[in-house]
Design a protein that fits this description.
It contains 11 helices and 10 strands. It has helices at residues 16-27, 33-36, 42-47, 81-92, 112-125, 142-151, 167-170, 176-188, 206-218, 245-258, 275-279; strands spanning 31-32, 52-55, 59-60, 70-71, 96-101, 130-134, 155-157, 193-200, 223-228, 262-265. The strands form 2 sheets. The protein has an 8-stranded mixed sheet with strand order 1-2-5-6-7-8-9-10. A two-stranded parallel ribbon has the order 3-4. The longest helix has 14 residues, at 112-125.
Length: 280
């Protein structure tokens, strides 16, 4: 594994606030992508009394080569989980909640109904909370996407993750065009804000990134995130390149030129990082 540049290192900070967040999550028997995906920003987020909730278990039916979440046969859905998520959001006093999930190709709707139930439970307990969901592609299933639209999240996020030419390597069970179609369907059939993000450092070129951003803009994507890929373990894809701080500034310029007004771009940016601030 390649050594991290200093600007990609984050100190471990444990405070009363981070302990409170962990205690609430443990009490409600909840997973977070912060822990399962080894997010470098989790302590910053925990100090702000926030977390990205990971629903439908902590094992995935897909095997993306960059992701730290385990691949295995998943357990049945927990029917109490949507209520527990809503209760945790209330306990934490969140104003902006982010809900994501593992991919559940074993379910007929890919878990869209479970997302919808989470949203309903949150609206019931804390109607003032803004809700952002980060979903799998549901294999492009229209019924699943319709269920998501009907549940009315404030932001729909589906990450493209990488450029088209690297999909077979990084996301062998995913499909670049289906991901774009998912974002387009949500945008064309609702007034929900759409969002997507990608990692850099997997071997893409600047022209590949430009084409990906153009593709995202062509399907009406409103919000963009770009961050540096960091190899979770020796078993995962190696980092081909660590982008410099200057190159991240170049990517910001590129995003503006293509027409994105709302974006977070930087080495440690992840799809849910400072989610509310992007839209302020």
């Amino acid at each position: 594994m390649r050594r991290l540049p200093d600007y990609l290192k984050r100190p471990i900070i444990d405070t009363e606030k981070t302990k409170t967040v962990r205690k609430i999550l443990k009490t409600r028997c909840l997973n977070t992508v912060c822990e399962n995906a080894r997010c470098p920003n989790k302590n910053e987020c925990y100090q702000k009394n926030t977390a990205t909730f990971l629903i439908m278990g902590n094992v995935c039916t897909r095997n993306c080569r960059y992701c730290n979440i385990s691949t295995a046969k998943p357990l049945p859905l927990d029917s109490e989980e949507p209520l527990h998520v809503a209760q945790a959001i209330k306990d934490l006093g969140l104003k902006w909640a982010v809900i994501t999930s593992v991919t559940r190709d074993d379910l007929p709707d890919g878990g869209a109904g479970h997302f919808a139930e989470c949203i309903r439970q949150i609206r019931n307990l804390t109607p003032e909370v803004k809700i952002e969901i980060l979903t799998p592609d549901f294999k492009g299933n229209i019924d699943s996407l319709t269920a998501i639209i009907d549940s009315k999240p404030d932001v729909f996020n589906h990450n493209i993750e990488t450029v088209k030419g690297l999909f077979k390597t990084a996301r062998p069970q995913g499909n670049y065009d289906i991901s774009l179609e998912v974002l387009k369907y949500i945008k064309d059939n609702s007034d929900i804000i759409t969002k997507s993000g990608l990692m850099v450092g997997l071997g893409e070129g600047f022209s590949d990134i430009k084409k990906t951003l153009e593709d995202l803009k062509s399907v009406g994507c409103d919000v963009l995130t770009i961050g540096q890929y960091i190899q979770p373990s020796k078993e995962h894809l190696e980092v081909v390149k660590f982008y410099s701080l200057e190159e991240f500034e170049d990517l910001k310029t590129l995003a503006k030129e293509i027409g994105f007004k709302n974006f977070q771009i930087g080495p440690l940016v992840r799809s849910s990082y400072r989610a509310a601030e992007i839209l302020d």
